[in-house]
Amino acid sequence: GPAMLRAAAKNHDAVTVITSSSQYETVLSDMASNNGATTLTTRRNLAGAAYTLTAQYDTAISQWFAQQNSA
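Above: the chain's sequence. Below: its structure in token form.
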């Protein structure tokens, strides 16, 4: 869930977080060029994408509650 994605993103110094299958090629290419590891730049970019996704999720939940409360 979103908490696990945030935890992975928070630990991006050592963790590569993937939130979409569209990111596989980037990760595989990075790993092929770096002896099986991802670069910090890639991990930061993916962490940013994870935070964006969880922020969208949080916004959707917040909007749902706002609608429920105004009904």
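The chain has three helices and no strands.
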